[in-house]
Amino acid sequence: MKFTDGNWLIRDEYKVLGAVQVHDFEQNEGKLTAYASPQPIVTRSNMLDTMLLTVHFHSPLPGIIGVKLVHHAGVTERGPVFELSSQTGNHVIIEETDEEAVLKSGSLSVHIRKGPVWAVDFYRDGERITGSTQKSMAYIKEDNGNTFMREELDVGVGEWVYGLGERFTPFVRNGQVVDLWNKDGGTSSEQSYKNIPFYITNKGYGVFVNHPELVSFEIASEKVKKVQFSVAGESLEYFIIDGPSMKEVLGKYTDLTGKPSLPPAWTFGLWLTTSFTTNYDEATVNSFVDGMAERDLPLHVFHFDCFWMREFHWTDFKWDERVFPDPVGMLSRLKEKGLKICVWINPYIAQRSRLFAEGKENGYLVKKPNGDVWQWDLWQPGMALVDFTNPAACEWYASYLRELVDMGVDSFKTDFGERIPTDVAYFDGSDPMKMHNYYTQLYNKVVFEVLEEKLGKNEAALFARSATAGGQKFPVHWGGDCYADYESMAESLRGGLSLGISGFGFWSHDIGGFENTAPEHVFKRWLAFGLLSSHSRLHGSKSYRVPWAYDTEAVDVTRFFTKLKCRIMPYLFNTAVQATELGLPSMRAMVLEFPEDPTTEVLDRQYMLGDSLLVAPIFNEQGNVTYYLPTGKWTHLLSGEIVDGGSWRKEKHDFFSLPLFVRPNSIIALGANDVRPDYDYADGVSLELHNLEDGKTAATIVRDVKGAAELTVTASREGGAISVQVNGSGKPFSFALKGLGSIVSVEGVTGEVDGSVLKLAAGPKQLAFTIHI
Question: What's the rounded Cα separation, in Å, for the pair 298 and 450?
């Protein structure tokens, strides 16, 4: 939202009262409060007929400083509010001098200047990282009576801004206007299903605006040296989160808002759906499942989309008996084939649904201010909304989900949750403006907790479309409705990278595109991208997504990359645990892994899958690709080719290849199973040590399917000697050198040496040996 007219003038309809001078300070229980005047206080007459901005500075966690601007404190605070972590203790230090007041938290400090010029500066160990200058903090009145609170934070030369949720516009936010308001807008617009009021910059700090309602951002747009954000009302709160690295910012941000939960290992396999408006019954489903098996295509999850329920009855959680007369038996038969089952749901209740009358009678549906049930005909005739602010409504909704889990359902695709009205009244009195974006959090929480309750911790997984801050606690999320073309494939990747850098650990997209039917070449290129994503799903709108519907080669490409993903599961599942422990995304923007390399700052057509695999999808039929490799010797995982980084590369690939490189100084764990994502990763694992440089150390962890460390491996090189420490399972494994020549001799362990590979049988759980090259 723009309030100014160029650099000097205010727009006619607004009156901006910005902080000009501090009047005084107060300290109370670790909180520092400043009172700022919108005009110089020269005489006592300046203290009349004016306002004061109350600015509270506090710290919920070390390295995080909160700032809350308040105009009128008498406003009744109505929920919802984000669930944030905090700790008490002595991590806050407050100091005052003649020149300034300072609040310190870890390496981060905020300095509020005394004297005639208002200034708020944030420092990391003595280095200023951003700040708010005179008149940046402001209370704003609009001619129509609306009021706003605004802040403007400095953006330095060469500073790039990222995040704000899953956004399909350019990856770097500088120059963009972003209004955080969840909408069902597809992947080809500025709208977003997942609006997250958090951004991060390449200077190694983040900003979280603690408001679930509409937050309007001007990112180096209205004022090109500022990130401006504003909300309606009488108060505004935000947090500065220090890294100093971008990875550490994500760690602290997810400490504050919640770490991603660990999805079960089976979810990382290949999902196949019925598609949306296609016709299907048990025979059709079995033709898909059996067709995959007959073609040696590993399949792990089958998803039933909307029409598992009867038309015009969504959502009633009842199988359409005309099409599925024996749903329990059908699910049992599918599970005997080794499949997990997912079904589509949403929080919208059609008037013909059996839930509508129950919900209306018991007050479980969102109401109009006059007490009527809120309804419209968009999506479903007479559609209403479940009121998840009512605990009884949550339990009612959950009871139907439990019945489905008892039938054999393992996961729910929690679709929709974006088109939430504001002309309504909630059971708990929540502010409808705040509930618009926050509704999805309550919806996904109810569903996720049912799965945890019925299946156990780390056995719950959604396939969710909408989200707000904290939604990362309920994975997995997917990118929504995309077209079946290369442009949508690229915009989907931008959205996934943006969501990942906004605190979400796991993300997926519709392989081949949702709308329309992709040409064969688009589908095959998208397969490689999709199966080198955190989660992988074949899904469409009006046509089936079985590979043989495209051509014979599509079947072969599906097989190749599905089996590859199963083989890299020991590596990928360790990456998943990193997401839960460190708040890092599985699919990482290049700048996260290489913050010291300025070339990576704007890259959005390639990514790191975990910390050691670089993936550059191909966005054209010809197979041409241009990508960047940072400094070092990189090994192509598929071909074994070793190339020097530090430059751009141009190549051409067939459908069975793409740039997929192993980072130097890495250990990649490859599993012994290429048909399932959930198996004993440590048994027969191949540990590949790639291009370990002299004086460097590489390490990895191989985990079990519950996420516990089963095998910990560290390798250090001094000249021609590589010292290896292994703690763990005692199961057989191999240790292979990549880019390091052949093994000359081994000390400390007995095993079979074959060129550059050392094969070890089952033995002690702790090993220490040296390889000479």
Answer: 28
Name, in order, each residue with C-beta under 8 angstroms of 414's C-beta and a sequence gap of 6 or more. 345, 346, 443, 444, 447, 462, 463, 464, 465
Pairing mode, strands 120-124 and 127-132: antiparallel
Active site residues: 415, 418, 481
Task: Assess contact for 537 and 267: CB atoms under 8 A.
Answer: no
User: What domains can be seen in the chain, in order of their start residue?
Assistant: 1-74+88-143 (2.60.40.1760), 265-343+387-421+432-584 (3.20.20.80), 588-662 (2.60.40.1180), 680-772 (2.60.40.1180)
Judge whether 517 and 542 are in contact, CB under 8 Å. yes
Question: How far, CA to CA in Å, does 737 sit from each of 320, 700, 727?
Answer: 56, 15, 19
Check if the beta carbon of residue 522 is closer than 8 Å to that of residue 513: yes
CA distance 438 to 398: 19
Contact between 482 and 515 under an 8 Å Cβ cutoff? The reply is yes
Residue type for position 433: M
Per-residue tokens: 366: 């969102």
Residue 87 CB coordination number (10 Å): 10
| Other beta carbons within 10 Å of 357 | 11
Q: What is the DSSP letter of 44?
A: G
Both tokens of 13, joined, read 């309809």
pLDDT for res 447: 98
Per-residue pLDDT band for 89 (boundaries 50, 70, 90) equals: confident
C-alpha dihedral (436, 437, 443, 444), degrees to nearest 10: 170
| Interatomic CA distance for residues 409 and 304, integer angstroms | 10
- For residue 762, the model assigns a pLDDT of 84
pLDDT class of 764 with cuts at 50, 70, 90: confident
**pLDDT tens string 109-148:** 999 999 899 999 999 999 999 999 999 999 999 999 999 9
Q: Look at residue 457 in the predicted model and tell me its pLDDT.
A: 93
Q: What is the mean pLDDT of residues 452-479?
A: 98
The HSE-up count of residue 663 (CA atoms within 13 Å, CB side) is 18
Distance CA 152, CA 473 (A): 30
Cα–Cα nearest to 550, from 352, 361, 297: 297
**Cα(121)–Cα(135) distance, rounded to whole angstroms?**
14
Alpha-helix runs per DSSP H in 542-644: 552-567, 569-582, 590-593
Residues 53/139, Cβ–Cβ less than 8 Å? yes
Supply the pTM of this predicted model.
0.97
